[in-house]
Design goal:
Blueprint (H helix, E strand, L loop, with lengths): L1 E7 L2 E9 L10 E9 L2 E9 L1 H17 L3 E5 L7 E6 L4 E9 L6 E9 L4 H11 L7
Antiparallel strand pairs: 1-2, 2-3, 3-4, 5-6, 6-7, 7-8
Amino acid sequence: MQEHILKCDNFCLRFRLYFFESDIEYPINSNMTVVVTCNEFSAKADIDIDIKRFAEFSMELMDIYKSLEGEASIKEPYGYERYITFVADRKGHIVVKGFLCDDSRSNELRFKTVFDQTHLKAFAEELALTYSKYKKQI
């Protein structure tokens, strides 16, 4: 299990990844617990993902930090399609938004917040360093 935390101002995003290496050839081979706290709102949900797609997401996030443009998203390929998206606004700000729900979908949280790109650097670098080895080989 790997844990990665992005924290700034009144916002905190945690990714806890559980990768099942024996399942790497399958489209779903990892589980990511996402915990988001924004002011007084918070949610925790599990998202089934492909580690290869997460590696691409990690590289896209690093590109956003470096260029201050673009978008990076990770989402479930089926089911409730829970997601997290980062978008650069070209003014030095990053918009992060997402949708999380529990497995019965009786509780949902849609969120959106903006923060300075300097908060993204350590998070993006850590993800890229940890997961780039899983990027799809072309």
